[in-house]
Amino acid sequence: MLYVVIGVFVIPVILQVLYLLVTLNQWSFFPLILGLIFQGKRLYGTWRPLIENFVIALAGGFFVFIISHKGINNIGEKIYLITYAFLLCFILAFLAKFKKSRELIIPKLTEGITLLYSIAIIYWLVDFSKDYVYAKIVYVFFFIVFCISVFSIINAFTKIPLSKTNRFLLSLWSSIAMIVFALDYIIRVFKNGEISNAVSFQQEVYLFFQYFLLGVSAIYIAQNISMIFGFLPDKNEKSYRNSRRIKVLKKDHVERYSEEQVSVWYSLFCVVFSTSLFWMNYKCQFMNRQSIIWIVFVSFPILIHFYEYVKNYKGLNSK
């Protein structure tokens, strides 16, 4: 009954938002939705929490449209705000749901995933430093990133036991790296502008793909914000180190990191696949660094799942 009542009020809002977006050619919203659905389904495993977040975020975007400042006279600019507001509301809804159902939302990490993140952040820093080659702070960051990345690479290629401390450090590093990638990508995409402003079909396709990956990255940033910013001290806590909240968060980091060690061949394939794409893009500049990084993040797991599927299929047929 509750869902019926909510539906009576929410569905008209959703239809009104979609009508405004289509009427004013604000097409970037739709690939953003597809990206959220793609990654959200992989993360949640079920449709219900994803739909709930979607409805909350869409209603929040429409609310921002209604209360937007009177100084914004252009209706197109107000509609464009919906994209920003929707993304923010979706992240907030995700974080709220995270507190209620941690097991549902926290996916497993592996040595292979951390290895992929480490290679990607080295490429990101090398490409980023091209414009700041004389800045000493860049070299400091590069040294820190390199040391942590070497630690994750050693874990991926050796049989060093994945102790609780190692799993916590690798999980924490994975979250930090993912936040850097996601924030950098979000800033880049919104600088590109609206799909309807593209001057060619090729640019429309490019921007469509950019906003699709933005939806994917929004899921990642929501997940990892919850895993990082939870460590910030609370002024109401008497003892930070002995806080139950901190203990639970550390436990989440440890438990989300798989104790199963990946094979050397898996790690080697990860290195060859990612470094090849990053090197080619660095030399030829096919696209910006943000796009190639997210293409690797999205495509690599798909390739691995496809390989496992073919391997299992052949195994069943051989029996």
Q: What this model shows, in words?
A:
The protein has 319 residues and is an all-alpha fold. It folds into 2 domains: 1-102; 106-318, no CATH class. The protein is globular. The N and C termini lie far apart (51 Å). It is built from 12 helices and no strands. The longest helix is centred in the last third of the chain and has 30 residues, at 289-318.
Which key terms come to mind for this protein?
319 residues, mainly alpha, globular, 12 helices, 2 domains, transmembrane, transmembrane helix, membrane
Brief write-up:
With 319 residues, the protein is mostly helical. The protein contains twelve helices and no strands.
Q: What is the fold's blueprint, element by element?
A:
Elements (H helix, E strand, L loop, with lengths): L1 H22 L5 H16 L3 H20 L7 H26 L1 H4 L5 H18 L7 H22 L6 H29 L8 H28 L15 H13 L7 H21 L4 H30 L1
Keywords: Membrane, Transmembrane, Transmembrane helix
> What is the molecular shape?
globular
Please, how many domains? 2
Helix content class: over 70%
Question: What is the helix tally?
Answer: 12
Could you give the distance between the termini?
51 Å
Write down how many β-strands occur, each being a DSSP E stretch of 2 or more residues. 0
Order of helices and strands: HHHHHHHHHHHH
- Catalogue the unreliable spans: none
Kindly name the structural category. Answer: mainly alpha
Summed over residues and divided by their number, the pLDDT gives a mean of 77
Q: What proportion strand? A: under 5%
- Rg, alpha carbons: 21 Å
The description of the largest β-sheet is: none
| Oligomeric state of the chains present here | single chain
Transmembrane segments: 6-38, 50-67, 79-96, 108-126, 132-156, 168-187, 207-232, 262-280, 292-310
Keywords: Membrane, Transmembrane, Transmembrane helix
